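Hi R.,

Here's the chain you asked about this morning:
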Amino acid sequence: MENKRIRLGHGSGGKLSHDLIEKHFLPYLRNDLLEELDDSAVFDLNGKLFAFTTDSYVVDPIFFPGGDIGKLAVCGTVNDLAMSGATPIYLSCGFIIEEGFPFVDLEKILDSIKKTAEEADVKVITGDTKVVSKKSVDKIFINTSGIGIIDNGIRISGNKAAVGDKIILSGYVGEHGIAVMSKRHGLTFETNIESDCAPLNKIIANILKEGLQVHVLRDPTRGGVATVLNEVAKKSNVEIFINEDKIPIREEVMGACEIMGLDPMYIANEGKFIAFIALEVADRALEIIRNSKYGENARIIGDVIKKEKGRVVLKTCIGGERIVDMPTGELLPRIC
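And here is the predicted structure, written out as tokens:
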């Protein structure tokens, strides 16, 4: 053990990340709330249900097509709360800033935080700043925590996928990861690829206010769609069947992935969600999502087909089938 070291792959969101949490963090910090390992912890306080989450943002570069680290920080935390069925209300923001960081860049980031929080109808009510010497941190890192309220009767978790559920993906995949990577490496394409970074809480609210039977909500950030589907399959002990030709991928993103040798199923997203919804209300849910901002390109991509030790099966465009595994090793470092 003393010779082992943390690798970049431990932060990728794939199998190494899960091993890091389950083998190293959980043995020391284990409790009933933490063991759920959902996007937010859900707890009861005086008869009211709350969701609480935290996340840190180290994206490189800090400005990218479609967003920046400030917008990303608000969207990421708002979306994690929304994935538990909560209405986000308050955020905290903590900043670790490298000595010499330009004030003009800091103010751009703060303006993004302000505008995104206003769009999501949340308030930043507390925070912290630390300044460290040069090369102690790369420009600026941001931590955000958030709290939200869950209405009575809403119980959404990664372990609640049920046989018969339809799986809805809210739009095109891979845009955030490719936008960040192209900016990082100075790549240009015929059509500009922008991050999908966006707050999703209002789409989720539109679904939940109709009382539709939503079992699971997840946003496919680090590790992408493939990782989220595997997480849900294992936690719910079900087999998931998805159709490759139903997964919405822009041609520009597919082309970029081919150039860089990447699979869009494993690329990070910051403005998409996956919903597991009871068969009888899935069409209505899809209609609501498509009529909401940021959900216009939603599709049903598959089903939960049976109770079985968790696995994900993909029907390929040419009619074959293959198992979709959780990614191992290093994917795209510092993507969020």
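One quick note: The mean pLDDT is 94.

Cheers,
M.
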